[in-house]
Amino acid sequence: MQKFILILTLAALSACSTLQFPGVYKIAIEQGNVVNQEMIDQLKPGMSKDQVEYIMGSPLVKDTFNVDRWDYVYYIKRGNDTREQYRMAIFFKDGNLNYFTGDFLPSATDQQAATDADDDSES
After folding, report:
1. CA-based, 20 to 30 A from 41: which of 31, 35, 101, 108?
2. What is the rounded distance in angstroms from the CA atom of residue 76 to the CA atom of residue 58?
3. On the CB side of 2, how many CA atoms lie within 13 Å of its CA?
4. pLDDT computed for residue 94 by the predictor
5. Alpha helix (H) ranges present in the chain?
6. pTM above 0.85?
7. Quick one: what percent of the chain has pLDDT higher than 90?
8. What is the rounded CA–CA span in Å between residue 68 and residue 62?
9. Distance between CA 87 and CA 74 in Å, rounded?
10. Domain map (residue ranges) of the chain
11. What are phi and psi of 110, to 5 degrees?
12. What are 44-84's pLDDT values in tens digits?
C-alpha cells in the first residue's frame, strides 16, 4: 500500500510541474551592459576612452592582457521567450577609438552622411 501511495504522489507531483498557470507574469531578466543602435551611432573613430565610456558605460570586461580592447555583453530573457545575446568589442589604438565589431554596425544614414561629406569636400 505504501508503494502505491508513493507512486501516486510522484505521478501527481510530476504532472503539476508540466502545468502552466494562465496569466502568470514573468519578468524580463537583463544582464550585462545595455547596448543599442543609438549608442553605436554616436561612436566615431578617434574618440578617447573617456568619451567612449561616457557613451557606452563601463565595459563588462576590460582585458588585463590587452588594455586596448573593451568587451560589452548584454543578455535579455523576456518571459518564456528565448534568450537574446548581443556583443560588442571596441578596440583602441594609442588611447583613441580605432574600430569596433559585434552585433551592431553604424546605421546606414550615418555612413551615407559621411560619404556625402567626403563628396562635398572633393568638389
Report:
1. 31
2. 18
3. 0
4. 92
5. 2-18, 37-42, 49-56, 108-122
6. no
7. 26
8. 9
9. 6
10. 26-104
11. -70, -40
12. 999 999 999 999 998 887 878 888 999 999 888 887 778 88
Angle at 120 between CA 118 and CA 123, to 5 degrees: 115
Total H helices, total E strands in the chain: 4, 5
Could you say which architecture CATH assigns to the domain 26-104?
A: 2-Layer Sandwich (3.30)
Using alpha carbons, select from 84, 88, 83 the residue that is nearest to residue 105: 88
Cell of 96: 583613441
What local confidence, expressed as pLDDT, does residue 47 receive?
Answer: 93
The Cα 10–Cα 87 span in angstroms is: 43
C-alpha cell at 37: 543602435
Pick from 80, 87, 121: nearest CA to 105: 87
> Is beta strand 61-62 parallel, antiparallel or unpaired with respect to 84-93?
unpaired
Question: Which grid cell is 72?
Answer: 560589452
